[in-house]
Amino acid sequence: MTTASVAAAHAQAPAALSWQRFHELGRALAASAAADGVPDVIVGVVRGGMMPAVLIAHQLGVRTVRAFDATHTVDDSVNAPKLSVPAVRDVDSLGDLTGLDVLIVDDVAGSGMTARVCVEHVGEAGAARVRSAVLVVNEANWSGSTPPGRALSYIGQTTDRWVVFPWEGQS
Questions:
Q1: What is the pTM of this model?
Q2: pLDDT tens sequence across 81-116
Q3: 140: number of Cβ within 10 Å
Q4: Where are the domains of the chain?
Q5: In sequence order, what DSSP letters do the residues of 103-115 get, joined into one string?
């Protein structure tokens, strides 16, 4: 995507995701993950990833849900500026994941950097298998040479603009 097309994508009004669509995407992600084996642990990326993480955990019957606090934006505003690298707090919240199959869940992947950082930390916590699931990929922000479909295990949908989720009070 060219610089001009990225700027045009950012100028668009944000895409609002409804509660109905949230549930559809969560169920689809759960089904995709289940087809590859039900994980032992689900890790939700704080804050936005906790909602889909809990939904997916219920769909899969997984009782162990942990939180990982990582963010790549300076705040929650539409088109918020990015930090140079995702900020991570309280890595110990992952606990010991030695030998476990872990599914990391987030609401959105923009550049893909938060997902990469989470996968790295989950691996360092001892996970035997690490997969990632996101409700929405914002392709206008994606960076890196690996396309989203190869960098992330499961993707609900893609867009080219900022996404406002139903728990953000916009839909």
A1: 0.84
A2: 665 665 667 767 788 999 999 999 999 998 888 898
A3: 19
A4: 3-168
A5: EEEEEEESSSHHH
Tokens of 162: 């900022």
Q: Is the bond preceding residue 47 a cis peptide, omega within 30 degrees? A: yes
Amino acid symbol at 74: V
**Cα(23)–Cα(25) distance, integer angstroms:** 5
DSSP string, 20-63: HHHHHHHHHHHHHHHHT---SEEEEEETTTHHHHHHHHHHHT--
Q: Report yes or no: 140 and 160 within 8 Å, Cβ to Cβ.
A: yes
At the top level of CATH, the class of 3-168 is alpha beta
Query: Quick check: 103 and 131 in contact, CB under 8 A?
Result: yes
